[in-house]
Amino acid sequence: MSPRRRIFFPAPARRRATVAALAVLWALPAARAARAPDWLEAAARTPVTVATKDADAVLLLNEGCEEIDRDGERTIRLRRVFKVLTADGKKHAVAQVGYLSGSSAVKSFKAWTVRPGGEVIAYARKETADLAVHAAALELYGEARQQVIAARDDVAPGAVFGFESVVVGRTLFHQEAWVFQTEVPTERSVFALRVPPDWKVTERMVNHAPVAATVADATRTWSLAALPAFADEPMSPPARSLAPWLALDFQPPAKDRAATTGLAVGSWEFLSRYFTPKFDAAAQADDALRARVGQLLAGAATPWERLQRLCNFVQQVNYISILLDAANAGGFIPRPAARVLQCNYGDCKDKATLLRALLAVAGIKAYPLVVLAGGRSRLESDWPAPGQFNHCILAIEVDDSVRSLALVEHPKLGRLLVFDPTDPFTPLGLLYRSRLADQGLLLAGETGGLIALPAARPEGDRVVRVIHAQLDGLGNLRGRIEERFSGIAASGVRRERQVRKEGDFQKYLEHSLAATLPALREVKVRPQDRFPEAEFVLDLEFISLGYGKLMRDELLTFKPVLVSRRAAFRLTKKPRLLPVAVPAQSYEERAEFTLPEDCTVDEAGAPLQLETDFGRYRSSARVVDGKLLFERSLELKELEVPAADYEKVRVFFEKIARSEQAPVVLRRAARVAPAGPEKVAP
User: Fold this and answer.
1) Can you name the CATH fold of 13-257?
2) Fold for domain 268-455?
3) What is the end-to-end Cα distance of the chain in Å, rounded?
4) What digits encode the pLDDT tens for the residues 212-257?
């Protein structure tokens, strides 16, 4: 799904890869001995009050201005001014402006570099590259394009780089948003809106106290200053979930609405009513589609198997994006299901629509569910806006026989099973919840609207590890590890295996083992992917030379924690700014050690039991039938812990880490020196 690129949603990092790959296009001579515009010079002279410690650049000015005519045409001006602080800050000397080839145009695009000595370099059309905005190599065609000016070769620490762009176009919905905070410290962030005098404007400030707009000459202006960079802290929510941003709705008076191309949203139900007929029209089946359903369901024994076969089929349809008519919500409108089946490709909304059509032929009802993937962990539920979404999945009606962690109860539609046909690694019955925001828009006509997505639960992301190991008298260890991944944990390792070649996957696992097991030898890896079941099994054999350490020829020590948990958390004692996002997951390990015959356990780590509102942990080591049995388990609940309670989370994981570093000490049996010949007194 590719909604209109708004000010609120800047191009993601993966799009910037295109810029890096084509940097040679921009290595063009620029006009020197030029003069920077007054607004850039004023920004460059602004004293920096925001904290810049550890920053590679500071954004001196982040300014957007949008003007809307009575007929709905928009003019958006964007100005940004960076000051480069370190050599790494050169990457910020890149100007980008996006537009839609079918409905908007770049009227002006210029950039300037002001070197520390005062020399000004100006960039204009001949230094500008015009490129397709590829969300990924999987985008076949899209109207989204960008113009780019790169000045990284002209800047050095102390230099100032700024640009100005002006884009004119139209959009379907009378809405806009502006994010004030960025990944670098921002001295001043400003957004201005100018609409005809009799238009109604509704504003909402998110993640910040209300900011009163200054009004002058029919222009409303909102401003924030001295905004720190997004904090980079482990186990934190996505930074954009916490950044202050402004949500705006504007509505013309009744007399102007007929001449205006845009629509006022008003409610989530309005969006459901607007988009549902368009999705319904695309989900109509033809003879070829009906025939394919017959082929797929031949011999299916149970209702679940029928559902599973259809879902698995659509998961294998190639993901390729085509974005047309974006200004009229083309990024939200799916292609006909029959066409998607014929071509065997489509984007998220196309694949969801194909599956919906297949299910309908099989007598199963389903509804499009528009969601937000990545970027933010939660939606702003008080602002009904299609621009908050970028992904489409499906909600499937099921009966009481279905047991799943991906179920939601709808007050009118009953039990709905949420499924993402774009995710090829997660089978029916699960939802990769950590990739999605907490709510989605259900497109079900009058009964549609915003719904909560299934909550993540520990049993839905589970790893069980069983270890059998034998330690010899020299400290060498021979072992076998069986790891059983279930739920989302299986999806994760399945994805990891898919993105790597088979040999690279084994090297990846060997590297993971080598972090705690020295001198690895004879590593054997046997993966078993049990898809479409939510299970993946890894069987590993290895030899680690010198794992145990000899001490004074009478003691042998080793750590019973052979390998780290796959989701280990390292939290420092630094002051915390952001909440702690604890993920829902569970882990269990049972390790059995066969010890050298002449050794007994002299010391083992003390058992540990921890219980908090967000998780619990158990570990113990004991001798059973002459073998050392070490067990540990961890269960975490999905919870966002306030920064004020950070110390409680840090101490929880610190105690776990300290306990898992405790060694086992073995004592060798006393050795009796062999008796020599009996001495005879003279």
Assistant:
1) Immunoglobulin-like (2.60.40)
2) C8orf32 fold (3.10.620)
3) 104
4) 999 998 899 999 999 999 888 889 988 888 899 999 998 888 776 6
